[in-house]
Q: What sequence folds into this?
């Protein structure tokens, strides 16, 4: 059974804090790692798709890194804002030809 | 540019009934995937349709079936509903089916989901 784990499960930070969370996935048969942001009452929105070991992607204040050899990806948010409050999902694409999602990290940013 | 649309938004059914959920993909997308998100879990892959055929399937029983139409829209049907089928059902579209790594290089575009409650 392929497992994709995200930690922490939830996170409460103050506006302006920088934060990061982790996605762990199988280190074999890796094809891609996706990150999605899911705000309440909206649909999940793609942030990054990473395919190469050592990939680093950035979108505004949000960035992500990828280590396929050890099976983890970090998502960083610099200077969190209340509008960053959302659930952040990662999804692993491997040999099963199905994207396997983690359970997400719920981020709450207090103004 | 219309995104992924799903209908209905909410649905309440009783055990044993059948339900049909609908999805229209983002303009220009030809592949539709369905996911079930139960409380406290991440989205679980149900199946994927491309060229009107089921191309991939997750670990869901045959009570879950689907269809894709020539205009790329899709339906998810669930027969003999169980209480455990209560969940948010998400539809996602993309341009490349999940056959090998090429399928993973494209992000999924999700709809807002259909909340199914089985009583």
A:
């Amino acid at each position: 059974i392929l497992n994709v784990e995200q930690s922490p499960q939830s996170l409460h930070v103050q506006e302006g804090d920088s934060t990061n969370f982790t996605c762990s996935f199988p280190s074999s048969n890796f094809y891609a790692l996706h990150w999605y942001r899911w705000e309440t009452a909206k649909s999940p929105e793609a942030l990054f798709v990473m395919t190469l070991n050592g990939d680093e992607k950035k979108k505004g204040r949000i960035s992500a890194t990828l280590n396929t050899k050890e099976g983890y990806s970090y998502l960083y948010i610099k200077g969190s804002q209340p509008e960053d409050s959302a659930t952040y999902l990662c999804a692993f694409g491997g040999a099963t030809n199905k994207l396997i999602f983690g359970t997400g990290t719920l981020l709450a940013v207090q103004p | 540019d219309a995104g992924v649309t799903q209908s209905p938004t909410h649905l309440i059914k009783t055990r044993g009934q059948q339900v049909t959920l609908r999805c229209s993909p983002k303009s220009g997308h030809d592949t539709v995937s369905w996911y079930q998100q139960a409380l406290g879990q991440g989205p679980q892959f149900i199946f994927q349709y491309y060229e009107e055929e089921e191309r991939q399937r997750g670990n869901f029983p045959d009570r879950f079936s689907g269809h894709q139409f020539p205009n790329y829209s899709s339906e998810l049907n669930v027969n003999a509903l169980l209480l455990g089928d209560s969940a948010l059902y998400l539809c996602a579209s993309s341009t490349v089916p999940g056959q090998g790594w090429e399928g993973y290089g494209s992000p999924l575009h999700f709809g807002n989901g259909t909340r199914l409650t089985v009583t």
Notes: Chain B has a mean pLDDT of 91. The helical segments of chain B are 101-104. The interface with chain A takes residues 3-4, 33, 35, 40-45, 48, 56, 58, 90, 98-101, 103-113 of chain B (CB under 8 Å).
